[in-house]
User: Fold these one by one.
Assistant:
Number 1:
Amino acid sequence: MVDDYEPFRQFLFSSLQNTSSLYVCWEASDGFEAVRKAEELQPDLILLDIGLPKLNGIEAARRIRKVSPESKILFVSQESSAEVVQEALGLGARGYVVKTDARRELLEGVNAVLRGERFVGRRFSGHDFVRTSHAGA
């Protein structure tokens, strides 16, 4: 779970702690820390913000794909442009949820990504992101 805003990390934690199949093993507040922890712990799933200090989430995801290739990345970010979503999915993220939609879509997105499916929030229905994604990422 990577977000520089502590109250949002608490929201994510409380949203996920009620799901018996999930265990939050670490939190990070910047992109460098996220890459280091991903390499060390090789988590199944990483919730990643884009607007991070020191190293933004897009670049952190690029590095995480190299050091922890089996980890699935679900972006949870305030960025809501289709271009940003396309870039995130194009570098290997499995899903994207806009923060303002997280209360409704977070668990659905987490579960889909953990099942190996791609998940993109409903606000992006009508966009075709599949052709820009890495197969098997």
Number 2:
Amino acid sequence: MTKEATTIIGKWRITSMSAWNRDYIDLVEPGFITFEKHGMGEMAFGVVTAALDCAFNAGKTDVSFEFIGSDEGDEISGEGTAELTGANTIKGEIEFHNGDDTTFEAHRW
């Protein structure tokens, strides 16, 4: 297994969410979440786009993040977590401030 396969760093294809179905996840483009090694990232699903500010654990196998972005032009913010559950799978949660919460699963892109 490569070093990248043992960390959460990289681009992940969102395959399921507890709050929305696959049609919504891929409404504008394939849903994804990205974690970059220097603590930045981004996510997009449905009509949501957001920049992430990430904090990794020492082994970079899980991450907590805050986000700001837009949902159909409305400003959004919130926080989330994600954990590596296999070389090619992560599970996590996204919580919008004053809004929806969802769990998600994603696979390495």
